[in-house]
Amino acid sequence: MTSDWENLTRAKHGDETAWKDLSCSHQKRLIKMAMLITGSVAAAKDIVQETFLYLVKSTTRHQSGSFKAYITTIAYHLALKEKKRLHSVTELGETDLSEQSPQPLETVLLTERDLHIAKTINSLSDDHRNVLILRFYGDHSYEDIAEITKQPIGTVKSRIFYAVKKCREVLKQKGII
Amino acid sequence: MEHPTEDKLLGLELELLDAEEKQRIREHIRECKKCEMRFSKVVADTQILGSIDPEIVLPIYDYPDIDKHSFRAILRFAAVLLIGFIIGYGTSLFSRPVCNNVVPQYLKTKPVEQPMFQFTSTEVVDL
Residue A100's beta-bridge partner residues? Predict the structure, then answer.
């Protein structure tokens, strides 16, 4: 089986099959993660597209370590940047421009339970939420999360513990669990 | 052994405990039905947090036209160079320093009519 690093090298040299393999195997996970960070589906799709473009166009010869962590790092930082931009747009009172506003998260959450969970995760502070999203939706180890967020592993572990504990309390109060 | 706290059970589920503590609590859970149930509840609650399943239509990302992009980048670079050259050349035309034409003037020295050596030292003093 071809590794992701090999697929990336081939995609950089014009192999469209390698490009498809690469995008198919990471797309869904990255979209979910970016969607929960930004709160927008449309923005998440754009972020993932931008991530793949960056990967193929970049000239770095970084080929060691976890490819999953590498690609997530790119998507994660793009998502944070987009979240900041969306937040500043909201603060300027431009939310009424419905044509320009991206598809909100609520439109793709079909069950009330999912909506409650998403809201609970969203109620956490940025640091706690991001770590939780990377763990549960990015499917990363604590070592990977520490590398992605550039935080010490101890901080990552304490944040994930607090985030899960807090979410359990809120979901219990809401009667979801 | 005492029953582990809720935080310890959560720590076990999140793989945050050290090996020794982890083994101790696991052994306790195997023997204690009540704690086994408590732990199952913690596991189920935790898994719920990662269970959001949105209805997303996955987009198909077309393969980017890398050559076209790099060609554009080269063109852009060439255009920047050309514009820079034109601006530099134009600036040099307008701000050309005025040349001070210096006409060299040579001093014409008179030929010595009476060389000094024709006088004696005493005569020079007299003069």
Answer: none
